[in-house]
Predict the structure of Haloacid dehalogenase.
Amino acid sequence: MEAVASHKQGTKGAVCFDLMGTCTDWKSSIVASLEQQPATNVDLPSLAAAWRSVFFQEIHRRFEQGDPTEDIDITHRRVLDALLDEAGISFAIWGEDVRQILVNSWHNQTAWPDSIRGINLLKQDYFVVALANGTTRLQMDIVKSTGLPFHSLFSSQLLNLTKPDPRMYLKAVELLDLNPSDCIMVAAHAYDLRAAAKIGMKTVYVDRKTEDLDEDMNRVRTEFDAFVDGTTNSLAGGIAGVAALLKKGI
């Protein structure tokens, strides 16, 4: 059965957000946590960037192999252990307690300056939800620490699927009781939007200084339905910019 038309529910549809990197400044939080641990000779911002990059590689590797959804804390820990081993940081230097603190630090993040304002503006006209890989507990902890005011949270754990599997986007659309064309995917990751576009969702790319460092931004600027600058920490850019854009229509 086709979903009920969105206008009958008093909303223009739904805006689905990726969470980490798109709505949150994960790097500042992770670097701050790394800096609180026993001193080493490792460049900590570079370690944080490598942790994020290899984590994405691991997620995509597991997806391509058809592996089941894994608790994101387990993935983060496995990647961290490998990176610390490469850097020569043994358990004698950073032991179990330190490593667990670092993994837990992904649950406590800071929102980009534009995120809360933008989400609140969007909620005037749309259902606004998080649709992201990870556990529901991770999403709840991030929402608690950041104050991001989503209507609902859809995790890969909850849906038992992993982005960029098209079925994850379709399942979220089904739960929202909408059609794909009534839903907009917003992310700072091109792979995420490419998958959403394949099922008929509209797509808005938010450029963040921590994300998609290997993507050709000239291509990305024209690949999706809209492109929003989120690199300046302006209260009018990023997610607030998405809200202004959708007010005009895309």
The beta strands are 14-17, 127-132, 152-155, 183-187, 202-207, 226-229. The chain has a mean pLDDT of 94.
